[in-house]
Amino acid sequence: MGGRLKLIYQKALFRITFADKMTQARKDKSLSRTEFADLLGTSSAIVGRYERDEMTPSIEVAAKIAKELDVSLDYLAGNSPMAIKDTKMVSRLEGIAAMPEAARDQVLHVIDALIFKAKFDGHVA
């Protein structure tokens, strides 16, 4: 196998898809396919097709999937490495993002200092 083809093949092996993330998030919530399908208003067969990456949900359905799984659509789409499941945290982040730049910088500076202290004290890896 040529070098370029081998690299493409290796990347494909490590690619985590919307389907993978959705499946894992559903399992993390201890939901069966049937229970999850009921929450979405669809069939377990459709959920199965999403999970096997045989079918891609519309943006509206993807947003509903994210909401029901308590993850962001960005996470499911692969645009964010983290699944933020704490809705209070998301609300706080949205509040910080809405602040004027100077106030936002002050808040982030305080957060950075607290994270540094937590790391120094051995509370954060």
Summarize the structure.
The protein is mostly helical. The protein has helices at residues 3-14, 18-28, 33-40, 44-51, 59-69, 73-77, 87-98, 101-120.
Detailed description of the structure:
- The chain is mainly alpha-helical and 125 residues long.
- 70% of the residues lie in helices and 0% in strands.
- It has 8 helices and no strands.
- Helix 3 packs across helix 4.
- The model is unreliable at 9-14 (pLDDT under 50).
Layout of helices and strands:
Blueprint lengths: L2 H12 L3 H11 L4 H8 L3 H8 L7 H11 L3 H5 L9 H12 L2 H20 L5
In N-to-C order, the SSE pattern is HHHHHHHH
Task: Give the integer mean of the pLDDT values.
Answer: 85
Helix percent reads 55-70%
Q: Low-confidence parts lasting 5 or more residues at pLDDT below 50?
A: 9-14
Radius of gyration, whole Å:
19 Å
Strand content: under 5%
Number of helices: 8
Distance between the termini: 40 Å
Structural class: mainly alpha
Shape estimate: elongated
Task: Label this structure with key terms.
125 residues
